[in-house]
Specification:
Strand order of the largest sheet: 4-3-5-6-7-8-9-10
Number of domains: 2
CATH topology of the largest domain: Fructose-1,6-Bisphosphatase, Chain A, domain 1
Distance between the termini: 55 Å
CATH superfamily of the largest domain: Fructose-1,6-Bisphosphatase, subunit A, domain 1
Structural class: alpha+beta
Length: 262
């Protein structure tokens, strides 16, 4: 048995179960759609049901573990371990019938992240990682691309929900865009990180994400040979790329943000 004691298998199973439920609602009339922090920040009955499904299974099989989820799950952890759940990363895409959305499930203990899963039900792809054991896509090993030339880099980013932060990000975005090959904005941070790990993207940066947006993807990138760095400030941010490219990407992002703030 792996060091995780079956934890990765459990994470993958709950992500798949939640994904199956989400697929049954996908591209059908939406139910229970509400606003959260802004008009761009949505939640639906699909999100809530997926989080309930994941929580029920985890509580039954790991009753001493804690859970934190995007849609409100927040339970203590007598075991010192905590499951971090984003039941539907990319809700806006999902509600508009766009395919870029995912289920993200991670487990952390006192030493950091133990296991992580980003499941793409539409693409039938499951990205997984276990601490110290590498990263996989549908059971096959993956690794980050080795590109170290920023001008040839294909990047991904996202934007925060509140208007002032979005405006600042938009101002900095142009400076980044002119110095790289191109930038994609898919709408699911978990998928962006998984795609970096699989070598489809060279790097990623974003401000305003939450622990559940990044937890599983962070581990998958790291186990695929990638590097990560936090962006200081408010809101904080995350950058990911291969170790050769990340320092230059980080310098470009910080320089672009400073220029936009003047």
């Amino acid at each position: 048995m792996s060091p995780g004691g079956g934890d990765l298998e459990l994470a993958e199973r709950v992500a798949r179960v939640a994904g199956e439920g989400l697929l049954t609602r996908f591209r059908r009339p939406s139910e229970g759609v509400e606003l959260k922090s802004s008009s761009a920040d949505l939640v639906s009955e699909a999100d809530l049901e997926a989080e309930r499904t994941i929580g029920d299974i985890l509580r039954a099989e790991r009753p001493d573990d804690g859970i934190i989820g995007e849609e409100g799950a927040a339970e203590s952890a007598p075991s010192g371990r905590r499951w971090i759940v984003d039941p539907l990363d990319g809700t806006t895409n999902y509600l508009h019938g766009l395919a870029a959305w995912s289920v993200s499930v991670a487990l952390e203990d006192e030493h950091g992240l133990v296991a992580g899963v980003v499941h793409d039900p539409v693409g039938v792809e499951t990205f997984t990682a276990e601490r110290g054991l590498g990263a996989q896509l549908n059971g096959h090993p993956i690794e980050v691309r080795g590109n170290a030339v920023l001008g040839e880099a294909l990047l991904a980013t996202g934007f925060a929900y509140d208007a002032p932060t979005r405006a600042a990000q938009a101002s900095a975005f142009g400076s980044v865009l002119t110095q790289v090959r191109d930038v994609r904005r898919a709408g699911s941070a978990a998928l962006d990180l998984a795609w970096v790990a699989a070598g489809r993207l060279d790097g990623y940066w974003e401000r305003g994400g939450k622990v559940w947006d990044w937890a599983a993807g962070r581990l998958i990138v790291a186990e695929a040979g990638g590097a990560l760095e936090y962006l200081e400030g408010e809101p904080d941010g995350l950058m990911a790329a291969n170790p050769k490219l990340l320092p230059e990407l980080a310098a470009l992002v910080r320089r672009s943000e400073q220029g936009a703030a003047r």
